[in-house]
Amino acid sequence: MHWAEAEARKLTKRKEKEHIIATAITPSGPIHLGNMREMLTAEAIYRSLKKLSESCELIFIADNWDPLRRVYPYLDTSYEKWVGMPLSEIPCPCGKHSNYGEHWLQPFLDSIDRLGVQPIIYRAQNLYLEGFYTEAIKTSLEKKDQIRTTIEAISQRKLPANWIPLNIRCEQCKRLTLTSIVDEDIKYPLISYKCKCGFEGKADLRKPGVGKLPWRIEWPARWKLFGVTFEACGKDLAAAGGAWQTGEAIAQEVFNYSPPNNLTYEFIYLKGRGPMHSSTGIAILPSELLNILSPVELRFLFMKQHPNKHLEFDPLFGVLDLVDEWDRWEGSFFSGKKSRSGMKDLSEIYELSQPHELPESKPINVSYRHLVIVTQLADDFSSVRSILERSGFIPKGVDDAQLALLKRRAQLVRNWVKHFAPSNIKFELKKEIPNLDLSEDEKKFLSKLFERIGYADWSAEVLHSCIYEAIKEANIQPQIAFRSIYKIFLDTERGPRVGYFLASLSKDFVKERIRKATKV
Ligand SMILES: [Zn+2]
Ligand SMILES: [Zn+2]
Fold it and tell me: Is the ipTM of this complex over 0.90?
């Protein structure tokens, strides 16, 4: 059984009228691939619940009422003056968004839309300013001693003597992080507080937006207020003594709410760099990936393995391997196989990887590895198409829908070559023969090759055989032979797999180039 269905089946045992599957992100910086794991994990479970005919909703809370904690490395030093202010009250760094939170949120929302994820979106700023949390703030203050005891016992952390379960927002400087209460004896609804900016005043807790619940209390309050029945949680928060554990206790003891089911997900690592984290700059954004992978392949990355599995993402050759793997799954799915060795839950994973409907027929999948060669030889898609037709990679007369998919894939490969490919796989076909100094052995090999390819079928396999026969006849080392081919076409000593490379060029062009090279 696929992991999403297993979680959905566990949820049905709660006997709820409706399931609320929650996800949340604090948009304080670039929202990266690791954050996407939470979203796609939740969405897969939501889809599985719907398949089991359960009533359910997927919600996403953008915590844009959280304060800016510090000037992150990706921010201008001028942001110093905004530290402590809610993210929604800070200007956007580029000037194109309504505020700082939206600046990071919008690209993420665009990406999930392309991935077919459509949650109901809430912004914490609106929730606070509309009074959504006002009652929970009252309850928390009434039970502040109990909350303190619970947090201190579970987290093994002593809270300050004047701690209360609310961060009051200073009326003067508007910061959430600089205030403390003056009198420990709180007379609801008014609390006297002082701020490090020098202001002293009284906060009226009945007024919306007067402050913000600290994270360990806001989380369980939110479960209760939205009726959350499932939320995935990163392994840092799920650790012993962490916010999930205190949240469970506070949900029951303070808000009289049965905590949601949980699934802990692992971080995503960027190969050779470490866990992705926006504050360290080790991050890759979903929007960057959707520039080199189609939405199905990006979803597949997350659907094919359990969220508690360590995932190391390699934007270099790992991308090529991922797409090869996807193509094999797609081939197996359309061949009607229920499973294949090493492929568990084949049809479930195939379906969950689709952003929308299942395709009616199998898309033509020319491998990324081959398109890496072809797109570097062709200036536009019509040339890509001619090369693929000529070398037998696609049949002639492919329909428009299939061609559109292939065109998109060719563009994704071009983007990958431009932004991620290591320099040793980039090449440029020389329109004219380079100035060369070929040895007699090289010329001999090329002459033999010229004779052989004259009547050969134009395919990578046949050309590969021709090359090996010519090597034998000329009695030279294979690497010298390959080098002579790269030299005359690319003016380099290395290049792509030579059979595929030559098959991608026209026969006349190849013959003419070899003829010129051997006559020089
Ligand atoms: Zn912006
Ligand atoms: Zn202040």
Answer: yes
